[in-house]
């Protein structure tokens, strides 16, 4: 695993060849504006979140209503996501061999070591949980809702993903993040990200603690048919990150190896 992701990134079909469809991109941007905690949005809110003009948003939302992707709520003069969006999300999860292979192995590791285990993939400058099992003191697991987003720059999941990018893509992402996180002390945050990327290249994983008393470790996995997924383990503790790393690095890397081997056999 160490060094296997240095200076690489996934090449998308048709990348650098086809002319982007601006209308489609803008329509997707409108759909992306809807997130947990903001399930109902009006034209002005969508315009603010997407950077599009209100007139453009008005045209796009009308088309999205006609296709069922959005529903209009007259009393609020606002929109919410339509049922087909959930159907597509279910189709994505159901068709993922990565999830089919990884889920039982993740559950077994979470129960065996009494830790949290998650699997995520990147979307712009955030990571999206595909699956996450949270171990609690009642000797049971709870599942974080799939689709939950977390910041790429602050988390072990995100930093492990950044380690898979080619230099050009990495620099572009860092420039974007610098603008978004300029109020957080970007210089220090960039040093943390670069240290994490170096850790992935050298050890195969990185460690981060962006929430109080929670230490998380993550490792990237590349699958030919599915691109990069990132696996992580985390634990609530007051122990030093180095202690947690010593205890969980091997289980994390063994789980990643097992998932990759079983998926290779299944394909």
From TrEMBL:
The biological process GO terms on file are: negative regulation of DNA-templated transcription
Question: What keywords are assigned to this protein?
Answer: DNA-binding, Transcription, Transcription regulation
User: Gene3D superfamilies, alphabetically?
Assistant: 3.30.450.40, Winged helix-like DNA-binding domain superfamily/Winged helix DNA-binding domain (1.10.10.10)
The beginning of the lineage is: Bacteria, Pseudomonadati, Pseudomonadota, Betaproteobacteria, Burkholderiales
Segments forming domain HTH iclR-type: 21-83
Gene Ontology MF terms: DNA binding; DNA-binding transcription factor activity
Organism, by scientific name, is Cupriavidus oxalaticus
Work out whether the entry's keyword set contains Transcription. yes
Matches recorded under InterPro entries = GAF-like_dom_sf, HTH_MetabolicPath_Reg, Tscrpt_reg_IclR_C, Tscrpt_reg_IclR_N, WH-like_DNA-bd_sf, WH_DNA-bd_sf
Q: Which Pfam families match?
A: HTH_IclR, IclR_C
What's this protein's name? IclR family transcriptional regulator
Region (Disordered), start-end ranges: 1-22
What SMART domains does the record tag this protein with? HTH_ICLR
Q: Give every IclR-ED domain span.
A: 84-265
